[in-house]
Structures are given as structure tokens and as C-alpha cells.
Amino acid sequence: MLQGVTADISHMDTGAVVRGFLGQPQLESALTGMDLVVIPAGVPRKPGMTRDDLFKINAGIVRTLCEGVAKCCPNAIVNLISNPVNSTVPIAAEVFKKAGTYDPKRLLGVTMLDVVRANTFVAEVLGLDPREVDVPVVGGHAGVTILPLLSQAKPPSSFTPEETEYLTKRIQDGGTEVVQAKAGAGSATLSMAYAAVKFADACLRGLRGDAGVVECAFVASEVTELPFFATKVRLGRRGAEEVYQLGPLNEYERVGTAKGEK
Fold first, then answer.
1. For 2-24, what is the mean pLDDT?
2. 106 is in an annotated binding site
3. Which one of 62, 95, 113, 261 has the largest count of C-beta atoms within 10 Å of its C-beta?
4. Looking at beta carbons, which pairs linking 254-259 to residues 24 or more positions away fall under 8 Å?
5. Alpha-carbon gap, residue 144 to 171, rounded angstroms
6. Looking at 105, 106, 141, 232, which residue is catalytic?
């Protein structure tokens, strides 16, 4: 199967060289010399499955992969997608600390799907092209910990209390919406792949030295008392080179931030 997927992707007319690696015996070969490692590995969430259930399975997978990163490419920027991100990122941090390779700027939990959903849903309400909309999403990557900062949306917009409640709730429950719609066949995959590529591309532009690459990510917190928190970061050659403060919040967002910190 892997060989087939590798061959299939390698036929695309891009500048990328495609190679396939299978299983833990080939993990070191896959990781050696990498500048950017994207970790989407793990089981998807199914109906009735809590994020705690996911954690029990995915934690071990993330630990093994991060041990490989620490050994083979300790200076790589890591994009961690495996859910629950709120828990897998701290696990990865502990693996890197134990190995003596931890750099908080290089460990990025990918919450881009929350931003992608926020841009899409806000664009629907405003009647705009989603590509013209940019909504920062802070906090975490599960339920009420997800907080879209609608007051900081671009273009600047005003929302009624009803619109604010609807948008916030839908963005927070976006993952569950897909799980229920798939009726047991899995969770978000295509939209997650899109968001993952979008964020990885931003990291690559940062590695290249492009200026002004700013995205939201779940990183070692410099804005709250929590150890990790999603906020805007400026991406560069060392990863999240600058972590931005939350900025001015309205009353609804202040209350939401308090919920996310509990």
C-alpha cells in the first residue's frame, strides 16, 4: 500500500522528491536530516469517542515519533497534528526535554483547522470569499478551549450577539460536526490535510527567511499562566520566533478566555 501511494504521489508535476518509509525500522531513515517534521499519525475520532479515548492511543504513537525526531533531527521544526493536540504537545515537550533537545520555539501544535473553519463560517455570515477573511483563533484545540477572536477579524466586522454565539459555537464544534456527518466513518481528514499543508507551507516560508509570516499555533505559552496556549506567532528560521499577545478583547472573548484556561 505504501509503495503504491508513494508512486502515485511521485507522479505529480511538482519540485518535490517523494520517498516512502514504512514502520519503526525505517523511522530513522525517514527523519535523518529533516528541517520540518509533520506528525499527523494516530487514530481518528469516531462517534461516542472522547478526546481522552484518543489520548490513550495516540500518546504512545506521538512519543515514539518524537523520540525518533530527538535522535535523528533534533533541530527540526515539529508540526504536531495528532489529536488531542492539547495533550500530545505537552507529551512531545517532555520527550524532547528528556532527550535534552527541547526548544519551545520548534514545537508547534497545529490548530490551523480552527482558523480555516473560522474563516469559512465567518465568510458565510458576511457574504465574502473566505480567502478575504482572517480570524485569529486562540486557546486550545478542543471544545470550549477554542476561542475565535471575532473582534479582531479581518476585514473588521461587527456581529450581533446571536451571530457571535452561533459562530463561536460552530467553530468550537466543527470537529464533532464532521464526525457526526461521517456517521462512524472517521473524523475530519480532507479539511485537516488542507489546513496541515497551509500551516506547513507557512513554516517553510519562515525557514526560507520570508518576512511577516504570521499564523496561529499551539505553543509554549507566553501570554497566559498555562504551559501551552494557541495564539498568533511569527514564523521564522527557528520556528515560532515571536509569540504575540492576545490584543484587545471584548467582554464575550474575555469570558471565553477564562473558560479556556480552566
1. 93
2. no
3. 113
4. 256/139, 256/144, 256/147, 256/168, 257/138, 257/139, 257/147, 257/224, 259/144, 259/145
5. 10
6. 141
Q: How confident is the model over 184-215, as pLDDT tens digits?
A: 788 899 999 999 999 999 999 999 999 999 99
**Which residues, 6 or more positions from 206, have their beta carbon under 8 angstroms from its beta carbon?**
213, 234, 235, 236, 237, 239, 241
Does the annotation count 141 as an active-site position? Answer: yes
C-alpha cell belonging to residue 252: 464575550
**Known binder of ligand: residue 117?**
yes
Phi, psi of 253 (to 5 degrees): -75, -35
The residue behind cell 484587545 is 248
Whole-model pTM: value is 0.93
Q: Give all domains of the chain, ordered by start, each with its CATH number.
A: 2-109 (3.40.50.720), 112-261 (3.90.110.10)
* % the chain with pLDDT above 90: 84
Secondary structure (3-state) at 221: coil
